[in-house]
Fold this sequence. Notes:
A: mainly alpha, 5 helices, B: mainly beta, Neuraminidase
Amino acid sequence: MICVFAQTTNVKESIVRGKKVYDKVCLSCHMSDGGGVPKMNPPLIQTDYVLGDKKKIIYIVLHGMSERVPIEDEYYSNNMAPHADLNDQQIADVLTYVRNNFGNKADAVTVAEVKAVRNPIKKK
Amino acid sequence: MKKIIFLLFAGMSIGLTKANVVDPVKTKKNNSADNAGLTLPSGFVATKIADGLGSTRHIAISPKGKIYTKINYNKRSKYQNGILLLKDLNGDGIYDTAFAFGNFSGTGICIRNGYLYASSDEEVFRFKLDENDQVINPNQPEKIITGLISRHEHEAKAITLDYAGNIYVNIGAYSNACQVEDRKKGSPSMNPCPILDSAGGIWKFKADKLNQTYSDGVRYATGLRNVVGLDWNTATNSLFVMQHGRDQLHDLFPELYDTKQSAELPAETMYELHQGSNCGWPYIYYDHLVNKEIIAPEYGGDGKKSTTQYQAPVIAFPGHLAPNGLLFYTGNQFPEKYKNGAFIAFHGSWNRAPEPQEGYYVVFVPFKNGKPNGPWEVFAKGFAGKDLIESTRQADHRPCGLAQAPDGSLYVTDDSKGTIYKISYSGK
């Protein structure tokens, strides 16, 4: 019971910290409502990128995105810069915030999950 | 009293329900009373002559009044073609249907000498027009330019032509500030900027030669980050362009620019170009508050250090408004002050966040003897549909392309909903 409470509080705290990261680092392109900019910066509202495989979205935050790939059949022209200068906690927090805001509801992203994408274990 | 019939396209609400539209005899509505939602100077009226067309970018109107618009389309678009010839079958002034052709997306379109020119993000095509200005062979355009760089950012190839057989093409820089890693805080900018050899400028080609590549053309002007609005000014016989200034001064240099400064700077700038013009991107940006070319922070600038080594703009506007259309007015319908002046369609900002966004209007700059002759003024506003826009997608409509009809009316496209506005002077 106490474990569950601690976990829920941790997620809540992660979201609060994550909003600060979003406002400082992400908002200028993805906008205060997560809506992005038509045909330039993708939205973060219930897209399969945001709600899907966490490794993919962690990778994008770390490495940026400059490929011309459709996001729900639309193309977005601007390049997204890499943000590897954010630490694992900041990335976990901002992604947890995004996945629980803008109409999104999804499980949290953890520090361990971010670490695994940043420093993948080399397979022999 | 002329009754106007409206047909709804993409569920656009203008006070009619779908049921009314199905029976066109029943309900007629004249929307000129509210000027299609726009606020205009006294004596002007506006109507929506088409709606729901998709992402209508630039527009060209032929000498016989045929309206062609270039559209960007994807899998979900209403039209799966890149050019629309609008049709008003019953002559009521509403273009409720279109002939769609051209299997390439893109922005640029221009009519010159009996040809319709249109661009994708890599190529420019042309279609011969018949004596009624209809496209003769819509399935077989001539490819006149190919191989233009398109690397994701600033890929739209806006075009215009002079009256001497030349076509001018914007090749936008695939970069914000010529950094090694685009838009990444701390990534240095390249010096010299290698992008300029094949992008970040205007290239000039022949209007009637097939399959031209870079080696057949000439770099007409350089140091222009991205130009979407451009026009050949017949009063000065020269090319005028509007540049989209760089973004993210605060994101990249928070120690030099706070969010308010970053929202206002740099200016959007208008240039009169000649062969060899160098407008300074990425090395400088223009600060309209002090009227100076400021050294870009990536190149050692501190927000104040300035230079005069590049071409100065003829007029500068507040930052990030996104000038997507430019038109020098040559008609006789509007009052005398508008003759040879410039209309600019400002698409509306995104990079002002967290400050409120700006733009989403058409402005006018009076000209005399080929130069601006007074301050710019907002000519048509209300496209956004609301006063406060914080997130760009909140804007209902975003003005993009401009064209002048043979009768002197001004047409404005909106690439958000595919609405086309006609603005006329009624004198009342």
